Amino acid sequence: MRVLVVEDERLLADAVATGLRRQAMAVDVVYDGEAALERVDLNEYDVIVLDRDLPLVHGDDVCRHVVAAGYPTRVLMLTASGDVSDRVEGLEIGADDYLPKPFAFTELIARVRALGRRATAALPPVLERAGITLDPNRREVFRGGRPVQLAPKEFAVLEVLMRGEGAVVSAEQLLEKAWDENTDPFTNVVRVTVMTLRRKLGDPPVITTVPGAGYRI
């Protein structure tokens, strides 16, 4: 899942991004509404965690832009105000969910994951394919009943491949969904991660390389 965090309180923004990355999400961070508009037009995000009171361009206008452009991105709006009227107003301009500050980080994660499921075709909360079971919420992977310990990026790549339901997923798509915008597009990080993922999943291999196209399970 790829997430954009838009928050002008830099310490909070960076803390949210760090926490989401620990949940195997690819996260980009910006600190004002103008930069947010540039990112949403450049990259495809599953979820935007959007502070309402932003400098340069207000969060409401960022949300309106996402809706008017027809992007499938889901918007979780944050605000220091917990008034019902503010929540209603935020939802009416197109936000998908609303979370007042201060918030519990566990609740933020749960809401981001729920919105991420809505941003794509409906799939069961626990993914199963080729003898592998992956639970995104618990961050658990089993193969044949055996637990598999994966690093965050390995987990993210496996989740993207399993959500593909047998379709070929290109290296570019894996970079888009499992890494942030600071990753060098010419790096071999995808190939290396797939290699370690294959090793940890064990035999017989379940990840197939399709030459010139990508990978699939």
Automatic annotation (TrEMBL):
Keywords, in A-Z order: DNA-binding, Phosphoprotein
SUPFAM superfamilies (UniProt xref): CheY-like
PROSITE patterns: OMPR_PHOB, RESPONSE_REGULATORY
Positions of the DNA-binding region: 124-217
OmpR/PhoB-type domain sequence ranges: 124-217
Biological process annotations from GO: regulation of DNA-templated transcription
Pfam families named among the record's database cross-references: Response_reg, Trans_reg_C
GO cellular component: cytosol; protein-DNA complex
Residue span(s) of domain Response regulatory: 2-116
GO molecular function terms attached to this record: phosphorelay response regulator activity; transcription cis-regulatory region binding
Modified residues (4-aspartylphosphate): 51
Plastid recorded as keyword: no
PANTHER family registered for this protein in UniProt: REGULATOR OF RPOS, TRANSCRIPTIONAL REGULATORY PROTEIN CUTR
Protein name: DNA-binding response regulator, OmpR family, contains REC and winged-helix (WHTH) domain
The organism of origin for this protein: Streptomyces zhaozhouensis
